[in-house]
Every structure is written in structure tokens, then in C-alpha cells.
Design goal:
Layout (H helix, E strand, L loop, with lengths): L17 E3 L7 H13 L5 E3 L1 H7 L3 E5 L9 H8 L7 E5 L4 H14 L3 H22 L6 E8 L2 E3 L4 H7 L3 E2 L13 H6 L4 E4 L6 H10 L10 H4 L3 E4 L1 H4 L7 H12 L1 H4 L11 E5 L2 E5 L3
Parallel strand pairs: 3-4, 5-7, 5-8, 8-9
Antiparallel strand pairs: 1-2, 5-6, 9-10, 10-11
Helix pairs in contact: 4-5, 5-11
């Protein structure tokens, strides 16, 4: 597992073989600066514990080539693979959309001899998503700003704009299937969002709220209608928005509850620990979907 693998809960008991080179807990701006320095020098952001991986002697290694900042990539594994007792199969995933995530689930099921179970997982996810879309159909679509980093600002990319659309909103900056790139604050302010969703990559809702409190927000931020009305929500990006797995559908359900609480309260869905923290009249309160 990697240092961030934490779901399902038993994943925490697995041996960690991938570690970050940048210390956790740094301010967002400092993280961005160090990431850019590593990339400029051509250095990896992650280290692989070759000894641990050799002792585990895996048959299959699943990695990703979607984002070299977020997780270990095939390049990070290259030197280690030559030291393993047996050559494992390498499955590299690069999803850009919800459909790609579904296909990756099917692919993993096929490779691991669990095709039937994978098909059941996908069918369940599609049914839940269809229920959300039926609930929000015909409702006004608020203008939604999703930020997956604050210093500097990055709008949510890849599947996030699609998640907003499926949940009954319009993403004002993100583009479906396109990686997130930094924008300037003037672009953000010009979008005049009705709702702001802060989902920093790798952060939970409480960490997102703390990051917001320390962020160098621009002049004019307080004049946005979303800020004035308290429609700023801090969500668990790490669990429900950043990772290309089944819980993206939980993320869509959370968005739907935020955007259209009046018509989604009766949905027969289980959000488990899914929640947002909402800014309201200068204070923060936890909003627990039910």
C-alpha cells in the first residue's frame, strides 16, 4: 500500500511501500513550491521501499499514470522492479472520467479473477448515480466553483466537473476530462459562483477548513454571493473527490445534498461518513447528510 491508503479500514494494517519525499502538514503554498522544485529538477515526489516490496513478492502491482504529484507512478517503480524475486504484472491506470473509473474496476476484476463481483460493484454505482440524477432533474442548476488547491488556486479537473453536473450543478471553471491547472484569482472572481466547494487534494473536510482559514484570499472574495450567503462547503477531497475509485459516487451524492437539499433528502442512499463543513455567517458548522 501507499502512505495514504486508508480505505477500507483494514487497509491501514497493510504494509506501506510508498512514501512521500515532501513532509506532510506544510502550508499549501509551501507544498506547491516544493512540488515545483522537485519537478523542475526531474526528481520523483515519492520513494519506494524496495526491500519491503521484495519481501512482499507481489504477483500484481496496480499503479497510476494520471498524476505524478498525487501518487507513485510507473517511473517511480522502474528501479525497484529489477530487484524483485519474480517479475510481477504491472497494471497502470489513467482514468479521465467516471466511465473510465468504471472500466478500471472491471479491468481489475478481470485480472484478479473477480469479474462478477466487479460487475456488481459497477451496476450498484450506476444505479445510485441514476437515482441522484432523477432526484435533481429539472431543478435550477447553481453555478459551482470547485477548488482542489488554494495556494495557488486549482479548479477541480478530470471527473470533478462531471460529478458537479450529475449532482445538478454547473462547474464554472473545471473542464471534464481535463487535468487541473492553476488559475489566477481574477479568473476565479470573474466566475461569480453561487456555491463554492473546497476539496483540497489529499485533505479531509476539517483540513480543508483549516487550509481555507490560512489561505491568501484575494480582495473581492468576500463580495462573492457564495461567500455572503455562507454557501462555502469544505468536503473530504481525499475520500470522495481526488481518488479514482468507487467512492466518487459518494462524492456525487454529497454534492447533490449540498446543491439540492430539498429534493435529495429522501434518496435511499448510505453516505457513511460522508459530510461537508459549511461556512455560515462567519462560522463553520458540520452538515451531516442523512
Amino acid at each position: 500500500m501507499s502512505h495514504e491508503c486508508d480505505f477500507p479500514p483494514e487497509a491501514r494494517n497493510k504494509r506501506v511501500v510508498v512514501y512521500p519525499r515532501i513532509s506532510p502538514g506544510l502550508p499549501a503554498g509551501e507544498v506547491d513550491r516544493r512540488v515545483r522544485e522537485h519537478v523542475a529538477r526531474g526528481e520523483s515526489l515519492y520513494s519506494v521501499d524496495s526491500q519491503a516490496l521484495a519481501e512482499l513478492d507481489p504477483d500484481l502491482i496496480i499503479t497510476q499514470d494520471l498524476c505524478h504529484v498525487c501518487a507513485a507512478t510507473p517511473d517511480d517503480l522502474a528501479a525497484t522492479l529489477a530487484t524483485l524475486p519474480h517479475a510481477p504484472r504491472i497494471l497502470t491506470l489513467d482514468p479521465q472520467s467516471l466511465a473510465d473509473v468504471y472500466n478500471d474496476i472491471r479491468t481489475i476484476g478481470e485480472i484478479t479473477g473477480r469479474s462478477a463481483q466487479a460487475a456488481q460493484v459497477v451496476a450498484s454505482l450506476e444505479a445510485r448515480l441514476a437515482a441522484v440524477e432523477r432526484a435533481v432533474a429539472g431543478q435550477p442548476r447553481p453555478r459551482v466553483l470547485c477548488l482542489e488547491w488554494l495556494d495557488p488556486p486549482f479548479p477541480g479537473g478530470h471527473w470533478v466537473p462531471e460529478m458537479v453536473e450529475r449532482a445538478g450543478g454547473t462547474d464554472v471553471l473545471g473542464r471534464p476530462g481535463i487535468p487541473s491547472v492553476t488559475v489566477n484569482w481574477n479568473e476565479v472572481l470573474a466566475m461569480k459562483p453561487n456555491v463554492i466547494i473546497l476539496m483540497p487534494c489529499g485533505y479531509n473536510a476539517e483540513q480543508a477548513a483549516a487550509d481555507y482559514a490560512a489561505a491568501p484570499l484575494p480582495p473581492g472574495w468576500q463580495e462573492l454571493s457564495a461567500v455572503k450567503s455562507g454557501r462555502i462547503h469544505f468536503v473530504d477531497g481525499s475520500s470522495y473527490f481526488s481518488r479514482s475509485g468507487p467512492r466518487l459516487v459518494d462524492g456525487i451524492e454529497i454534492l447533490a445534498r449540498i446543491l439540492h437539499p430539498e429534493c435529495t433528502a429522501s434518496l435511499p442512499i448510505a453516505l457513511h461518513s460522508g459530510r461537508s463543513i459549511q461556512s455560515k455567517a462567519g462560522e463553520l458548522r458540520v452538515a451531516q447528510p442523512s
